[in-house]
Design goal:
Elements lengths: L5 E10 L1 E6 L3 E7 L14 H11 L19 E10 L2 E8 L7 E5 L12 E3 L4 H8 L6 E3 L5 E3 L2 H4 L4 E2 L1 H4 L11 H11 L5 H32 L5 H33 L4 H64 L15 H5 L27 H50 L1 H58 L4 H17 L8 E3 L6 E3 L2 E2 L5 H21 L7 E5 L8 H17 L12 E6 L10 E5 L8 E2 L10
Parallel strand pairs: 3-15, 3-16, 10-14, 14-15
Antiparallel strand pairs: 1-2, 1-4, 2-17, 4-5, 5-6, 6-7, 8-9, 11-12, 12-13
Helix pairs in contact: 6-11, 7-11, 8-10, 12-13
C-alpha cells in the first residue's frame, strides 16, 4: 500500500476581500516580491495567511475568535473554499470565515461558480479529524499518557509534520508540540518507524491502567472505611464466623434439652391449685393498682387547686396594696393648694382661681371633668379585701389537708402493691417460673447468638469482597506489567526505516551544502536527528531552521519511497528564519528546484506524485517557472478587494 496522496488544488476566499489561487502537483511557489515601498514590505503580504487558510480548511480548531488569524477582517471576508484531492478523490471543503465554530460542508468535485447551491454534507469541526484520516486511509490511533489517559493523534496535530507554519515549525522539529514525547509519537506513527501494534497496545494498556487506578482508589477508600469500622482481616473474620456458628449450635442443643425437661415436669403440676391462688393474687393486685391510679389523679387535682388558690390570694393582696396607695394619694392631693404653676413656676392670680367657679381649670382654662384631689367613684375597701383573703387562705388550708391525707393513703397503697407483687411472684416461681424463666433466658441468648452469627457473616462477606478487590487489583497490576513489557517491545523502532530516513536526510543535507556537514544520525529513542555527533539544534540559530525543514523534506522523501501514513505533500512557510545567510538559502532553493526535475516518483500522466507548496521572499532563476502567485504589500496582497471592470459601449 502506497503512502496517502494529498494535493491542494485551489484556495478561494469570498467576500469584500478575496483571493483565488490554483495549485498543481509537484512544486508550487508563492513569492513575496518587493513593492514600491521597499523590501521590508515583503512581510505581511499574505504568505503565512495562505498556510493558515490551508490548515483552517482542513479542520483546525480555533480556541477563540480573538485568536483567529483573520479576525481583523471578519466583516470583509465570508467563506473559504478549499479544493483538495485525497487518494484520487476530489473534494471541496466550505468553511465560514465569520462563524468559526459552525459546521463545515463537504462536496464532491472541484470548486465551480455556484457550488454553494449544490448538495453537500455537513460536518462538525470536531468531526473533521476522523473524516480526513478516513479519506487519507490513515488509522485513528491514540497514545497513552502517564496518567493512563489516551491522547488522540488527531489530523490537525499530524498536520504539523507536513504543513510547516513559520511561527510553529522552524524553531525546532514539531516545535511547541507538548509533551516532547508526543513529537516522537507523531514522527514514529507517520513514518511507521514505530510499529502500528504499539498504538493498539497503548489503548489496551490505557484501559487496564485506568481501571487499575479506579480500582485502587476504590480499594483504598473501602479498606480505610472497614479499618475504621473495626472489620478484621479475612482470616480473623473466618475464625470469628466459625466461633459464632459453634456457639449458636451449642445454644440450640441446650434449648432442645430444656424443652424436653419442661414437657416432663408439666405433667406433674396441679392445674386447680395453681389457678385459684395465683388468680386471686392477680385480681387483688389489679384492684390495688386501679385504686392507686385514682388516688394519684385526686392528688394531682388537689395540687392544681392549691396553685389556683395561691394565685387568688396573691392577687387579692395586690389589690389591697393598690387600694391603700389610691386612698393615700387622694388624701395627699386634696391637701395641696396650688399658688404657683408647677410647670412654669409663675404665680396663680385671683382671676385664674375664679375660673374654677365656672368649672374651668385655673391653670389650663379647659373644662373640668375631674380633679386630682377628687376621690374615685368606686374605691374598694381594704376591709372587704381582707375578708376575701381570709376566705381564700381557709379554703387553701382545707385543700392542703386533703392532699396530705391522700398522699398518706397513696403510700399505703404502694406498699400493698409491692407486697402483692412479691407474693404473686413467689407463688408463680414455686410452680412454673424457674423453668419458664430459664427457657426465656435461653431464647434471649439464642437470639443474641444468631445476631452475632449474622454480624460475623456480614463482616466475613465484607472481608471477602475486599480480598476479592485486592486479588483483582493484583491481576490488573500483573496484566499492566505484561502490557508495559509488550509496549516496550512494540515501541522499538524499525531499524530499516530509521536507516533509510537517515540516508535520505544525509543526502538532503549534502545537497543543500549544509555548512561543515560530516555525518548525521537519528536517535532511536527520540527520533530527533544529530548532525556532526550533536543534536541538530546546536548547529546554530541561523542553521537550525534549515536543519528542521530538511528533516521534513526527508519525511516526504521516505513517504515517496515506501509505504507510510505521511501524505506525500509538504507546505513550507518562509523557511528563511534565524538569519539564514543568503548563500545557504539560495542553495536550499536550488535543491527544491532540482526535486521537480530529478524526482522519479510520478503519476501515469508524468506529473509528480507529490506536492510542495513553498512561500518565500528570495528567488532563484530555477524556480521562476513554478511561481503560482506573486505577493507584495500593500500593492498585491493575498486578500485584496476585487477590481471593478467597466465596459465601454462601442460608438
Amino acid at each position: 500500500m502506497a503512502s496517502p496522496s494529498l494535493v491542494i488544488r485551489r484556495v478561494v476566499v469570498e467576500g469584500e476581500f478575496s483571493c483565488d489561487i490554483n495549485f498543481e502537483r509537484g512544486l508550487n511557489i508563492i513569492q513575496a516580491v518587493e513593492s514600491s515601498k521597499g523590501q521590508q514590505f515583503t512581510n505581511k503580504c499574505g504568505k503565512t495567511t495562505l498556510v493558515e487558510l490551508i490548515r483552517y480548511g482542513m479542520g483546525r480548531r480555533i480556541e477563540s475568535f480573538k485568536r483567529f488569524f483573520l479576525s481583523p477582517l471578519h466583516n470583509k471576508i465570508q467563506t473559504l473554499w478549499l479544493e483538495i484531492e485525497t487518494n484520487g478523490e476530489v473534494l471541496t471543503i466550505e468553511r465560514s470565515l465569520n462563524e468559526i465554530y459552525s459546521s463545515m460542508r463537504i462536496r464532491n468535485g472541484g470548486y465551480v461558480s455556484g457550488i454553494e447551491n449544490t448538495q453537500s454534507e455537513s460536518v462538525k469541526v470536531e468531526d473533521m479529524s476522523p473524516l480526513m484520516l478516513k479519506l487519507l486511509s490513515i488509522p485513528s490511533v491514540a497514545v497513552k499518557q502517564a496518567d493512563g489517559k489516551l491522547d488522540q493523534l488527531s489530523f490537525p496535530l499530524l498536520m504539523r509534520a507536513f504543513i510547516l507554519h513559520q511561527e510553529d515549525s522552524f524553531g525546532a522539529i514539531l516545535d511547541k508540540v507538548q509533551p516532547e514525547e508526543r513529537r516522537k509519537d507523531i514522527i514514529g506513527f507517520l513514518t511507521q518507524i514505530t510499529p502500528l501494534e504499539r498504538y493498539t497496545v497503548d489503548e489496551r494498556l490505557a484501559a487496564v491502567q485506568t481501571k487499575a487506578q479506579e480500582l485502587q482508589t476504590y480499594y483504598d477508600s473501602v479498606h480505610s472505611f472497614l479499618s475504621e469500622s473495626g472489620v478484621p482481616s479475612l482470616s480473623e473474620a473466618v475464625e470469628n464466623e466459625i466461633a459464632a456458628r459453634e456457639a449458636l449450635e451449642q445454644a440450640k442443643i441446650g434449648r432442645r434439652n430444656l424443652q424436653r425437661e419442661i414437657q416432663g415436669r408439666t405433667a406433674q403440676l396441679d392445674p386447680a391449685k395453681m389457678s385459684g391462688k395465683v388468680d386471686k393474687l392477680r385480681k387483688d393486685l389489679l384492684e390495688v393498682k386501679d385504686h392507686l391510679g385514682k388516688t394519684e389523679m385526686m392528688i394531682v387535682g388537689f395540687q392544681q387547686e392549691e396553685v389556683r388558690l395561691k394565685e387568688i390570694a396573691a392577687s387579692l393582696r395586690t389589690d389591697k396594696q393598690k387600694a391603700q396607695r389610691l386612698l393615700t394619694s387622694t388624701t395627699i392631693l386634696s391637701s395641696i393648694e396650688f399658688s404657683i404653676c408647677p410647670r412654669c413656676l409663675l404665680g396663680i392670680t385671683p382671676e385664674m382661681k375664679l375660673r374654677e367657679q365656672h368649672l374651668r381649670c385655673s391653670l389650663c382654662n379647659r373644662n373640668l371633668r375631674t380633679t386630682s384631689d377628687s376621690p374615685p367613684r368606686a374605691v374598694p375597701k381594704t376591709e372587704d379585701i381582707d375578708l376575701q383573703i381570709q376566705e381564700a387562705e381557709s379554703v387553701l388550708a382545707d385543700t392542703r389537708e386533703k392532699r396530705e391525707s391522700l398522699e398518706v393513703q397513696l403510700e399505703e397503697l404502694k406498699k400493698t402493691e409491692v407486697s402483692l407483687s412479691h407474693e404473686l411472684q413467689a407463688e408463680s416461681e414455686s410452680y412454673v417460673s424457674p423453668i419458664v424463666d430459664h427457657l426465656i433466658n435461653q431464647a434471649d441468648e439464642l437470639a443474641l447468638l444468631e445476631s452475632r452469627l449474622a454480624e460475623a457473616k456480614n463482616i466475613l462477606e465484607q472481608a471477602k469482597a475486599l480480598d476479592k478487590i485486592s486479588a483483582d487489583l493484583d491481576d490488573l497490576h500483573v496484566k499492566q506489567a505484561e502490557l508495559e513489557d509488550l509496549r516496550r517491545e512494540a515501541s522499538k523502532p524499525n531499524k530499516v526505516r530509521v536507516n533509510r530516513l537517515r540516508h535520505i536526510y544525509s543526502s538532503i543535507l549534502k545537497a543543500v551544502d549544509f555548512p561543515s556537514f560530516r555525518s548525521c544520525s537519528i536517535d532511536p529513542i527520540s527520533l530527533m536527528p544529530n548532525i556532526n555527533n550533536q543534536l541538530y539544534v546546536h548547529s546554530g540559530t541561523a542553521l537550525k531552521g534549515l536543519a528542521t525543514v530538511c528533516y521534513h523534506l526527508a519525511f516526504l522523501g521516505l513517504s515517496n519511497e515506501t509505504s507510510t501514513f505521511l501524505p506525500k505533500m509538504l507546505v513550507i512557510d518562509s523557511p528563511a528564519v534565524g538569519d539564514l545567510n543568503i548563500d545557504n538559502q539560495e542553495k536550499f532553493l536550488r535543491f527544491i528546484a532540482r526535486i521537480q526535475s530529478q524526482s522519479r516518483f510520478r503519476c501515469d500522466d508524468g506529473t509528480p506524485d507529490w506536492q510542495i507548496i513553498l512561500t518565500t521572499r528570495r528567488m532563484v532563476p530555477e524556480l521562476e517557472e513554478f511561481v503560482r502567485e506573486k505577493l507584495s504589500a500593500p500593492d498585491h496582497m493575498l486578500l485584496r478587494k476585487k477590481k471593478r471592470k467597466y465596459l465601454r459601449e462601442k460608438p
